[in-house]
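Query structure, 420 tokens:
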């Protein structure tokens, strides 16, 4: 229990960041109601979150070891806590953009630092793997909790009420609790401070060279398309529940938690399936099932209008069915990340991780903006029907990704046997 304060602080770090990062769907709905912002304008909140993550990861990741992991986390928590404290008093759409930008930058600092710190506070591979799983699980708990915490501050009787902004005082409290817990906890970083990061231009050149490889290029496209699908649904599900299914704002936010829960369950279940079945077949079956669910759920949504909804017990069937898409799309991202990293030598994992973060962030931003504009021009049902297009494209990408990956493995196997 030597590191209990550090470990508890890491849990709180991830918890508050998960709540804030994944509140973007809730906030997209609320800024439309409170500030009269259009769907297309609200969609840029995803860009402020994702692009700040990508930029900060690219610029700062190599230098976190120089700054120090503990100090990096303290800076991130201080920035998040300060931004949350300002939100209720400076409540505006501009301040909301600033909050998500600050949260994105802080997440980049925290994720790199947390991953590195786990290696310091664990004693062996088994403990490392166990604690990593606990941390990632706590991130999902933060997402699930966020839906209910944010919805508790929403006023269904006055859509223009700013009372929901008071939730940020609670988020600030959690961030500052983690901050002071971390300040009080000793952390010996001497074992990692000897590492000297590469110069910025050398890091950039490594990523460009890596991205030019056919296997990596098709992976980048696949990852981009996947996150486009995931974030377009996750960020706009509360708005879909409110504007298409006619649910109260509070219930719209709460029922979006079904997506987070089904995503967690999908990834847990896929962990067993992928041990027995080739990843390509698992993912293609999942995508076909996701497309089928869209074709089932949207007609249900069209037929759900006409009665007042007051709670979970009388919510339309579509509100329960559509979020189950998380079960089927959830395994895709971890699986393809695992395939690409295991296909590359260890020395290229750093640049590859940078490419994953950058193109995932770009995919999330693109998906949210496209969906927001389609919501505004064509309506929510058409916007979610559009997810069938990237699902189809992703199946094609995975087909080529699988073929190239097999060829790459064959070459590596041949070269390894030839050297013996």
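Result returned for the query:
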């Amino acid at each position: 229990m030597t590191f209990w304060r550090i470990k508890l602080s890491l849990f709180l770090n991830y918890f508050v960041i998960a709540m804030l990062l994944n509140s973007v769907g809730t906030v997209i709905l609320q800024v439309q109601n409170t500030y009269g912002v259009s769907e297309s304008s609200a969609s840029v909140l995803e860009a402020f979150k994702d692009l700040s993550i990508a930029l900060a990861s690219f610029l700062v990741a190599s230098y976190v070891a120089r700054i120090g992991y503990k100090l990096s986390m303290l800076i991130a928590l201080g920035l998040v806590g300060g931004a949350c404290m300002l939100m209720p008093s400076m409540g505006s759409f501009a301040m909301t953009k600033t909050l998500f930008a600050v949260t994105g930058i802080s997440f980049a600092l925290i994720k790199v630092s947390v991953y590195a710190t786990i290696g310091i506070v664990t004693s062996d591979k088994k403990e490392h793997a166990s604690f990593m799983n606990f941390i990632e699980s706590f991130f999902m708990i933060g997402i699930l909790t966020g839906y209910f915490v944010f919805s508790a501050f929403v006023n269904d009787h006055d859509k223009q009420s700013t009372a929901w902004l008071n939730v940020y005082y609670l988020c600030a409290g959690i961030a500052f609790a983690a901050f002071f817990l971390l300040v009080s906890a000793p952390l010996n970083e001497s074992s990692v401070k000897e590492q000297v990061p590469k110069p910025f231009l050398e890091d950039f050149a490594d990523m460009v060279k890596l991205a030019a490889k056919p296997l990596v290029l098709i992976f980048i496209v696949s990852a981009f398309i996947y996150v486009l699908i995931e974030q377009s649904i996750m960020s706009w599900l509360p708005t879909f529940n409110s504007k298409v299914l006619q649910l109260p704002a509070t219930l719209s936010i709460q029922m979006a938690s079904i997506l987070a829960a089904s995503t967690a369950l999908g990834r847990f279940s896929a962990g067993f399936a992928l041990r027995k079945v080739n990843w390509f077949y698992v993912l293609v079956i999942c995508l076909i099932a996701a497309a089928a669910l869209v074709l089932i759920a949207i007609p249900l949504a069209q037929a759900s209008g006409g009665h007042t909804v007051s709670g979970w017990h009388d919510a339309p069937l579509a509100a329960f069915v559509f979020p189950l898409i998380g079960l089927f799309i959830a395994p895709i991202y971890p699986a393809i990340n695992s395939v690409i990293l295991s296909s590359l030598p260890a020395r290229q994992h750093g640049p590859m991780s940078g490419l994953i973060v950058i193109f995932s962030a770009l995919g999330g931003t693109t998906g949210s903006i496209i969906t927001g504009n389609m919501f505004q021009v064509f309506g929510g049902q058409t916007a979610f029907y559009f997810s069938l297009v990237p699902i189809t494209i992703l199946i094609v990408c995975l087909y080529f990704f699988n073929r190239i990956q097999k060829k790459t493995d064959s070459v590596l196997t041949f070269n390894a046997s030839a050297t013996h």
